């Protein structure tokens, strides 16, 4: 299913970090979707915060890369319910994805899913 991605403008600081805030929404999260494209070779995505909303009974895998029809390396698996689940996670120390891999997600069942990711690339 298609995913709609919206990138928000975020200030860049002189530390060399390229900060981002990005929102991805899909009517059916089944099938692995890309939230943020892979950075250049040698760079990695660092996740500082995630906000996840799912309207289905099942789970959402969030991680990096796509392997066949699944998230290649799963960093988190979150549970959702059909009544609507909203989860906000803020990491004191960021989750670092594999270098040169995209931030991706996959849902175990059909349903509207929105993920807002905040972090930086370095």
Topology at a glance:
Blueprint: E1 3-8, E2 18-26, E3 33-36, E4 45-54, E5 58-67, E6 70-80, E7 85-96, E8 103-107, E9 113-121
Antiparallel strand pairs: 1-2, 2-9, 3-8, 4-7, 4-9, 5-6, 5-8
Explain this structure.
- The structure is a single chain.
- It is built from no helices and 9 strands.
- The protein is mostly beta strands.
- The protein has a single domain (3-121), classed as Jelly Rolls.
- The radius of gyration is 14 Å and the shape is globular.
- A hairpin with a 2-residue loop joins β5 (58-67) and β6.
- It has strands spanning 3-8, 18-26, 33-36, 45-54, 58-67, 70-80, 85-96, 103-107, 113-121.
N-to-C SSE series?
A: EEEEEEEEE
CATH A-level architecture: Sandwich
Count structural domains: 1
The profile of the biggest β sheet is: 5 strands, antiparallel
Proportion of residues in β-strands: over 45%
Which CATH class is shown?
A: Mainly Beta
Secondary structure tally: strands:
9
Q: For the CA atoms, what is the radius of gyration?
A: 14 Å
Mean pLDDT comes to: 89
Overall geometry comes to globular
Strand order of the largest sheet: 1-2-9-4-7
| Low-confidence residue ranges | none
**Overall helicity:** under 10%
Count of individual helical segments: 0
């Amino acid at each position: 299913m298609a995913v709609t991605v919206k990138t928000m403008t975020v200030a860049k600081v002189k530390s060399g970090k390229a900060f981002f805030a990005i929102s991805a929404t899909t009517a059916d999260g089944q099938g692995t979707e890309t939230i943020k494209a892979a950075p250049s070779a040698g760079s990695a995505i660092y996740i500082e915060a995630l906000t996840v909303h799912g309207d289905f009974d099942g789970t959402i895998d969030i991680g990096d890369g796509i392997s066949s029809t699944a998230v290649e390396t799963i960093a988190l698996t979150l549970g959702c319910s059909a009544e609507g689940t909203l989860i906000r996670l803020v990491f004191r120390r960021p989750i670092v994805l594999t270098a040169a891999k995209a931030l991706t997600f996959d849902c175990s069942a059909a349903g509207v899913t929105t993920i807002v990711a905040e972090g930086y690339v370095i």
